[in-house]
């Protein structure tokens, strides 16, 4: 009986360890694979592909976001909101990033257990989740404020850990 259990655990571990990298990435933000929009261009949306995209994301964040009572995030600036990239930003913020404390705890746990560095899209989504938690912490009071602040700090630590892994990986590649 014990050997059967041990064999089953080893098989499970081996199967889990050999999953393709794409599967592991999808688990961080599973909702990115099923965005609730009709266009195929919004399946697994990514904002930042060029430096201009990074600048535009910065403009979206500085252009004052509005978060409604039902937690829908919108860009207040009408000119920015009318851009094509704003549709992807809207999909990321409203359909992909987690907005519940439990969803953010799950994300934090997976980020801390992630053995490698984050893909660009996962890093982007984690930063957007961090922005959302900062907003919620600022708007909350008492115990809720502490919970959101803790979530923010944990996301920060996960991103810092990822950056340290990236810099270590890139410096070891340069010396090779």
From TrEMBL:
The keyword Signal applies. Keywords: Signal. It holds the Pfam family FAM180. Residues 1-17 form the signal peptide. PANTHER family: PROTEIN FAM180A, PROTEIN FAM180A-RELATED. This is Family with sequence similarity 180 member A. The lineage of its organism: Eukaryota, Metazoa, Chordata, Craniata, Vertebrata.
